[in-house]
Amino acid sequence: MHEKALIDTAKALVADGKGILAADESTGTIKKRLDGIGVESTEATRQAYRNLLFTTEGSEDFISGVILFEETLFQKADDGTLFSKLLADKGVIPGIKVDKGAKPLAGSPEEMITEGLDGLRDRLKEYADAGARFAKWRAVIDITDERPTDYCIGVNANALARYAALCQEAGIVPIVEPEVLMDGENTLERCEQVTDRVLDAVFTELKQQQILLEGMLLKPNMVISGKKCGQQADVAQVADATLRCLRRRVPAAVPGIVFLSGGQSDEVATAHLNAMNKRGPHAWKLSFSYGRALQAPALDAWRGKPENIEAAQKAYFKRARNNSAAARGEYSADMESAA
Prior knowledge:
- This protein is an alpha/beta fold and about 350 residues long.
- The chain has 13 helices and 10 strands.
- Helix 10 (about 265-280) packs parallel to helix 12.
- The longest helix is centred in the middle third of the chain and has 21 residues, at about 190-210.
């Protein structure tokens, strides 16, 4: 019933040179971000911070959509306009994080399962009525020598597909996010092995649950060395391993792959995306759905002070512009020093 709308929205989210701002930090996560700059996390400070991002003039040239947290979807800009309407009026598609976070997996408590399927059908109707046209659900997969187990991969893949089916039923494009974490000691090769297993399981479940692949987006990790690995892969190695993995597992029917940054520094995340696009053309658009890698410089510049809003917006604009260039394969490190 919603087939055309789903396909059109998915394509619009990966329009040439455009990507997604992930501004969907939960209340706990945004508190950590604000604590880091010495700002108390209140509804007012969270609104002020999101307001400065969403009202950055010209950012809509690079940002196709914004993932909102539930609180933010119903908040208003300083001028009284609902954030969802403010974004839509600029041609930016509002989206919504719908999962309820990762909890210990029964039977394998060192691993995680994402919760939030109960009541999701009703919540999706409410979100659609509030202007959301796409959604996001994140599954968290940890890497050690023994993990992840097939059990953990299987139940998370099943939940991602169930979420995607409910989204498409509601006319909302699902962003499917299976995140293989980069916090461990694992090598690039181990990350590629695990990411391959995860993507294989996810697309098997999506097929079984009759997901319209043309009406969804994939938000995967890049294939990367763990943060604690003594031998860090370079930009070219990350690009080659990531593309090798995606070509094996992601059907060409999927219109776009919007990477998460996963704790990479902002400039490194941009360089990795650029390197992959330089190796194109690909079967799918390769773009970004970054949180920290788009926001960190803006947050640092703002520090909760009204007089710093302009500097913070310039910092956000620069990261959006540079990632837009990377989504075209046209980024260079010289752009970091350019005004």
